[in-house]
Every structure is written in C-alpha cells, then in structure tokens.
UniProtKB/TrEMBL annotation:
Domain annotation HTH araC/xylS-type: ranges: 180-278
Annotated protein name in UniProt: HTH araC/xylS-type domain-containing protein
Signal sequence coordinates: none
Transmembrane segments: none
Entries under CDD domains matching the protein: HTH_XRE
Keywords attached to this entry: DNA-binding, Transcription, Transcription regulation
InterPro entries: AraC-bd (IPR003313), Cro/C1-type_HTH (IPR001387), Homeodomain-like_sf (IPR009057), HTH-like (IPR037923), HTH_AraC (IPR018060), RmlC-like_jellyroll (IPR014710)
Superkingdom: Bacteria
One term of GO molecular function: sequence-specific DNA binding
Matches recorded under PROSITE patterns: HTH_ARAC_FAMILY_2 (PS01124)
PANTHER family tied to this protein: ARAC-FAMILY TRANSCRIPTIONAL REGULATOR (PTHR43280), HTH-TYPE TRANSCRIPTIONAL ACTIVATOR RHAS (PTHR43280:SF28)
Amino acid sequence: MRNFEIGILPESTCFSFSPNTEAKEIFLYPTMCGHYFCTAEYYIKRKHFPRLLLVYVCSGTLYLELSEKKYQASDGQILLFDCTQPHHYYATDALEFYFLHFDGAQAHELCRYINRTSGLVIDGPNNEKVHDELRDLIQFYEDNNSESVMASSGRIYRVLTLLDNPVMSPQLQKHGDAINEAVRYIRSNVGKKITLHELAELCGLSDYYFSHIFKDITGLSPSNFITYSRIDQAKSLLSSTSLTLPQIAKQVGYANSSNLIVQFTDRVGCTPQEFRVQHQGDEWS
C-alpha cells in the first residue's frame, strides 16, 4: 500500500494488518509496518494510539516528545515507545526510516522492560541486525508473501530480543541474580500465598528496596508479576486440562473462582470460560 499523507513521499511503502482473535490473545502481532521517506513536513501528534512503535532511523533525525520529555534518534538509532501515552513525533529535514507498529500478549510490559533496561532511544550493538530484520519484513510483504500468526509473532520477538541489551546501573547488576531467583520462586509457587516480605527476605533486601529493584529489572511490580504468572498458569490449565474453574483457581493461588474471573478478565480481555472455549473448542463443565 502506498501512502501519500503530508510529509510522506510517494516512494514510501506501508502495510496494515488486522489480527484475528487468537493473535490478540496469545501472540505478539504487527498492525502496521513500512519504509518511509519523509520531508520536513512529516508530523504525527496524538493523545492516544493503542499500539507500540519501533522505528529504525536510516538517515536524518526523528524527534519525539513523550510524557513531557524530548528525545531524538538519528542515523542508525532506534526508538521504541508506547503510543498509549500522549506523543508527538516529527522531522525537521529529510528523513528515512523503517517502522513497526505492534501489540499483543504482554507487549506493553515488554516495551516497558526494554525502555527501563536499554532506554527509549537505543544505540546498541544489535541495531544493524534490527535494521536487517525490518528491511526483510518489508521486502517479505512487498513480494506479496504471507505467514502464520506464530511466524509473524516470532519475527517481533526476534527483534525485541536484539534490543534486550541492558545498560544497568551497578546496583541493578549487583542484584540481578537475586531478582532472577525471586522470579523463579514466583513461577514455581503460583498456587501459594506469596508476600512481598517473603520475596525480599529471599533476596536479602528490605521490602522497599526489593520492590524498587524488582520493578526496574522486570518492568512490573512484584504484585503485578505474581498476578500475571498466575494468569499465565491459568491459561495453560484452561487450554490443556478438563479441571473445573474452582480447581484451577485453587491451583493458581486464588481462594475462589470469582477472584480468578475478575483478575483474568481484566488482563486477558475475556472470561476464563470464553478463553477455554476458544482454545479447546469445547466447554468443560
């Protein structure tokens, strides 16, 4: 698809996608990607857009205003940010870039994690590989190819993995192993009551400091991480067993199925029963 918006030159290319329900629930998925050649008139300003944006700047400078802060990315640099926040990005001269709008299961949490560990403007050792991945993606669609939702999701994960080049402070580096141990403990004990103090004690840190370090490294507070771990385990049980909802609730640490339904629906966007029907094709009693 050719795009002729103001500031975007005719030689630019853009592709849009409409993900199916399954893609939205369990995969990362692209919603738009392209290769833009822009003039100084290029200008996007939004209060909200429900996607994430990854940009690789080939030449020129892309300016970004986000959360009352200003950023800029030039030749060979990458921008990754959450468009659900008010944002404004623009060019002041000739600009060429590849871009990918994407979303999906825990996509926003992954974005926050990468922003915390690698920055919003990324100038890492794998930037050229990201360029190659985006270039190949655009060429793939220009050649009228298609692929499965899993393969498409794999492309996005591959790119995000290349961006995972943490630039941690000495404090974060010092406690990285301890936080990884806490993560393993949470995932192994989702059926039990897990307290902040218990996790902090496991890491040899105060409750406050553990909570701060944990969020800096994982992108989620300990309580949110525990909840998402329980929901992930519930998804697995719903799709692979015939356990009743009260049985699943007990196995993933909820006192009753009502609590599970509330947390699951809030984070997944459908009830556990709806998720089971969609992923097993048959509703269990």
